[in-house]
Amino acid sequence: MSEIALLGKKIGMTREFYKSGQLVPVTVLKVEKARVIQVIEEEKRGYKAVQLGYGKVKNSKLTKAMKGVFSKKNTEAKKKLKEFRVHDTSVYKEGNEFGLEIFKDIKFVDTRSKTIGKGFAGAMKRHNFGGLRASHGVSISHRAHGSTGHSQDPGKVFKGKKMAGHMGDKLRTMQNIEIIKTDLENELLYLKGSIPGSKNSEVMVKKSVKNISKMTIGEKQAAAEEAKKTPEKKKK
Predict the structure, then answer these.
(1) Which helix (H) or strand (E) holds 55?
(2) What is the reported pLDDT for 84?
(3) Spatial CA neighbour of 181 closest among 66, 104, 97
(4) So what's the architecture of 15-28+104-130+168-225 in CATH?
(5) Could you tell me which of 82, 88, 38, 37 has the C-alpha nearest to residue 206?
(6) Could you tell me if 40 and 50 are in contact, meaning their C-beta atoms sit under 8 angstroms apart?
(7) Which residues make Cβ contacts (< 8 Å) with residue 201, sequence separation at least 6?
């Protein structure tokens, strides 16, 4: 079940307190249930996958083709459709819904979201350049990016040259983010730290790709409590 991902909306940030008094900043995501629209078999397409639908949308907003797709599947219209490769399709059936319960035994997740768009930015802001000197003959070019091209040979600016341009508004993946807590009743997911994106932006959450052996904050707290209970050996 961890092969699939859920689509959430970033509500904002807050903080959580543990019994020891430790404060942890968290990002809150509102994660709605995903519905299985189609189960794709290997015989038809050459691979096994499931197509999931996210979010609600009015029928008036759909094209005729998409109206036909949803009426054929006899399901309510969904705003977004995404496909996920799976090892076993027998677990999934058309019409099934999955919510935060798929992260029940999972401690770490990966998120994918768009960063906040900054518009057109200079080289110093965009690429963290140091800039030129503030005095000693530097004339009105303190925040300039310096030389960009070459002389006659090769006589061009190479692709990928760090220059001023559009900053932000790019998809970014954050790995190994700890799940602090889940609120199944209100469909809220609390993740440790910050996540790229502005408020109300879409965030895709799935099980961490990497195998993480590190302890969660809750486990560290429990281990510390156990260490306090065990009596120390008397010094000779």
Answers:
(1) strand 49-56
(2) 92
(3) 104
(4) Beta Barrel (2.40)
(5) 82
(6) yes
(7) 9, 10, 113, 114
Supply φ then ψ for residue 100, to 5 degrees: -65, -15
- Residue 65 Rama label (left phi>0; alpha psi -120 to 50; beta): alpha
What whole-number distance in Å separates Cα of residue 201 and Cα of residue 170? Answer: 12
CA 7 to chain centre: 9
Any idea where the domains of the chain sit in the sequence?
15-28+104-130+168-225, 33-98
53-77 pLDDT per residue, tens: 999 889 889 999 999 988 888 888 8
Instruction: Give me the half-sphere count of Cα atoms (radius 13 Å) on the Cβ side of residue 54.
Output: 18
Sheet containing 49-56: order of strands: 78-85, 49-56, 34-40, 97-98
Task: Return the higher-pLDDT residue of 29 and 74.
Answer: 29
What pTM value is reported for the model?
Answer: 0.84
The tens digit of pLDDT for each residue in 138-190 reads 888 899 998 888 888 888 999 999 999 999 999 999 999 999 999 999 999 99
CB proximity list for 145: less than 8 A, separation 6 or greater: 122, 123, 124, 127, 129, 162, 163, 164
Could you read off the pLDDT of 144-155 as tens digits, one per residue?
Answer: 998 888 888 888
Options 3.40.50.720, 1.10.287.130, 1.10.10.410, 3.30.160.810; CATH for 33-98 is 3.30.160.810
